[in-house]
Amino acid sequence: MFSVQDGQKTYYDPQFEETVAYSSGQQVKRSILDAVSDALNERRAPVTFNKTLSANGNLEDGEPWSPCDPRYADQLLGGWMRAESGGGNTVKRRSPLSISAMRPLHPLLAGLARESASYDRSDDPEQHSVRVVNSDGEEMSDEEVQEFLESNDRMLPRRKWIPQDQVGPRAHGLYVFDVAVDLDRLFTVSTNQHEPELDSEKINELQEEGWTLTENEEHLVCPEGRRDEIIEALATGLTDWRVTSNQSRTFSPQPTLCLAVSDDANRVTNAIRADLTQEGRGEEAVPVIETFDGVSLYTMPACKGHVTGVTASPDALDKAREDIVDRLQAAEAPA
User: Quick check: pTM over 0.85?
Assistant: First the structure.
């Protein structure tokens, strides 16, 4: 489930003639990495924001620098790129996580709605004051305000009404996203200096801290103990993440209804999908959760309110997390 307000990204689906919301893969990735950092109880890698003071006194933004250091979990999982002006090699690492946009399960199963809103402090009028100015911009005294209210039979609420046309659209509906984990690259970093992921100084630092070279000396491998920590945190991030950008409302649970896990990414999209039916005067979409060989499904009880005929369990996400941990741990570490 997905519900945000104001600044929501949208696209138009020409086949079903619907404008629908989506959340970019970059935003999903950021939210997942936030959850991983929380699970590890570690701060995210420090970023240097470069500014240039121009001759006319303006501060101009430069390219932010990441540390390009796989000792930080969000760097190892999220990748990096750093290009310095004035010389020096560009270093970059592609993330081992391929993350799709979070998009509607089907254009007919999601939408955008507008609603009025209010900013209300009427429950405690003694705490919150009201300032009234006249047509000349002069602040009116309490006596003048009271006289106006009594003469015109008016009230002075501590409330601001915000009409629909001034409120951004809210997304609602059933949404899906996909994550593919490249197990060959998850815990390895290339030592190739022709297309470098690391500079030679960083390679030496990592080796001193327990990172080991593969037999062909083409990659450094993360220490086993650190791998186990990150696997547990990554499984938690994939199952428990939530939108953490400023698109999110104060509280929006956005519950995960169902999670499919497989060693074959192509099978997952068939397990959680929507089917078209012919109802009334046009087509309607029906959400479907279907079991296939090679796909493990984990369905929460809340899913029964949206999809008929499913088998659910209150500890489904806990079991999904255990399944992900087992699959990642079973992946053989590079020699």
Answer: no
